[in-house]
Amino acid sequence: MGASLLIWIAGLSFGGFGLVGVAYWIFQQWGTKWLDNRFARNLEAAKHEHQAELQRLKQKIDAHLDRAIKLHNKEFEVLPEVWRLMDLAFARIEALSMRLFRGADLNSLSDEMLDMFLKGSGLPEIQQAEIKAASDKTNLYIRALQSRDLGGAQNARIEFYNYLIGNGVFLQTEFFDKFVELDGLMLSAFVEQQMAYDGRGQGVSVDYKAFLALTEDGKKKKDGLLKAIRARVWSSASHVLPEAAM
Predict the structure, then answer these.
(1) Using an 8 Å Cβ cutoff, are 144 and 131 in contact?
(2) pLDDT at 11 exceeding the cut of 70
(3) Digit-coded pLDDT (tens) for 104-152
């Protein structure tokens, strides 16, 4: 009986080893392939997610770059135009006080010479007729020029200001603030000239401090702004143009 038990145990042991061998063989045949397939699927999924993440990052970078390029282009469209409009308004307002020293003594001209002079003045015909009929032709002529120039200066400043406010979002804060400062000086000088025009002959006295501020402080601010704009434009161009082209 003891020998039979040993034989049975030995058979069971050998049977167990057989089951292990069969299991190992099955794993070799199908298990490794299953692991390989699962690894491949996981790897493919990881690659797909990586590509998707790269695509999202690329789209984000492209969007930022596109916005930066559009903003840069808009800034370089606005800067020259707002400078041009400011410079024109500045010149017209600055010239207002100079009109008193312009022109001839119309009261001493003959009718023929007066007619030729007025035709070259650029004034409307109705104003020319009023000047011819006036007792003090020179004074009326000067006031007609001043009225015309005041209107032109006002329109130029308003056009500049409206453009600045409408496009100021595309300007760097440094430039926007400096343009606003210049507009304040121009507005004060214009109002002063308007008061002088309206009060002339009525005892109204104007000290022309705003005009002096425009011609002195305003010109310094204007020159400083021009240097800053040039530095901005050419510093950007230097990153694009080859050194030889500069």
Answers:
(1) yes
(2) no
(3) 678 888 888 888 888 877 788 998 899 899 988 888 888 888 888 999 9
CB 118 within 8 Å of CB 132: yes
- The predicted structure's pLDDT at residue 8: 44
> How buried is residue 11: exposed, middle or buried, by Cβ count under 10 Å (0-12/13-18/19+)?
exposed
Cα 171 to chain centroid distance, Å, stands at 3
Instruction: Look at the chain and count its residues.
Output: 246
Q: Is-contact 83 229, C-beta < 8 A? A: yes
| Side chain identity, residue 22 | V
Sequence ranges of the domains in the chain? 79-104+134-245
Residue 167 CB neighbour total at 10 angstroms = 17
CA-to-CA dists, residue 120 to 36, 103, 117, 130, 143, angstroms: 97, 12, 5, 16, 16
| Higher-pLDDT residue of 153, 244 | 153
The residue whose two tokens read 């390029």 is 69
C-alpha to C-alpha distance for 92 and 157, rounded to whole angstroms: 9
- The Cα 104–Cα 117 span in angstroms is 9
What whole-number distance in Å separates Cα of residue 225 and Cα of residue 169?
A: 18
Q: Give whole-number Cα distances, 164 to 83, 92, 132, 185, 210, in Å.
A: 9, 18, 42, 15, 22
Q: How many angstroms separate the CA atoms of 163 and 122, rounded?
A: 28
Encoded tokens for 172: 């760097």
Tokens 């007729």 -> residue: 129
Report the amino acid identity of residue 174: E
Amino acid (1-letter code) at residue 77: E
> Helix 137-167 crosses helix 173-199 at what angle (to 10 degrees)?
160
